[in-house]
Specification:
alpha+beta, Jelly Rolls, 8 strands, 51% helix, cNMP-bd_dom, cNMP-bd_dom_sf, RmlC-like_jellyroll, Crp/Fnr family transcriptional regulator
């Protein structure tokens, strides 16, 4: 999958440029993987085993509470990393599910391989830390949106951040992600100028 590997290299260098010898070591830990639509890749209660690089398709991380209410937390699509990162990096059972919404193509690396390359290549560890820091900043911004913004403001923010998301993700998942009733989400699509 040379196209996927080239896209992974572009993403890595966008996060934190690394030397060619560091890239050579990092690129060796990735294996191709395909999944069907609506396939559970990580289940709550299991440890996340892989860091995924999304080459094709759309996935989501979601949560079920004790009353069986569902919360969509994050979407992943090409070119980005995916999986349940807290479970992976802490090697603790996941509290979340990671599933494909469409047929998906990935490169994936096991935790032991990722850990080993991070320990032997400081630039790789720095790149991972910088990437996680960017993710945390985005997560904190999203928490502010969820707690402070109206439904229309959340919808507009989502479209500013990811204008193509309406074509990628089924609307029921987008509504859940924003904490908006599906009927209100449909009204927003018709009301807000895209």
């Amino acid at each position: 999958m040379p196209e996927a590997t080239a896209a992974l290299k572009l993403l890595v260098n966008a996060i934190y440029p690394i030397a060619e010898e560091d890239w050579a070591a990092f690129s060796l830990i990735w294996q191709p993987f395909r999944a069907k639509r609506k396939e559970a890749l990580t289940v709550a209660g299991e440890k996340e085993k892989y860091l995924y690089f999304v080459a094709e398709g759309v996935q989501r991380v979601y949560y079920f509470d004790d009353q069986n209410r569902e919360a969509t937390l994050v979407f992943s699509y090409a070119p980005s990393f995916g999986g349940v990162l807290d479970s992976l990096l802490q090697q603790q059972p996941s509290r979340y599910y990671f599933e494909t919404l469409t047929p998906s193509v990935f490169l994936r690396a096991t935790f032991p391989d990722l850990q080993q390359v991070m320990q032997t290549r400081p630039a790789i560890e720095t790149m991972v830390r910088v990437g996680i820091t960017h993710s945390l900043a985005g997560l904190l911004e999203r928490l502010v949106e969820l707690q402070c913004y109206s439904s229309e403001e959340k919808f507009k923010k989502l479209l500013q951040r990811s204008p193509h998301i309406l074509q990628l993700v089924p609307h029921k998942y987008l509504a859940n992600y924003l904490g908006i009733e599906a009927t209100n989400f449909s009204k927003l699509i018709n009301k807000v100028k895209l």
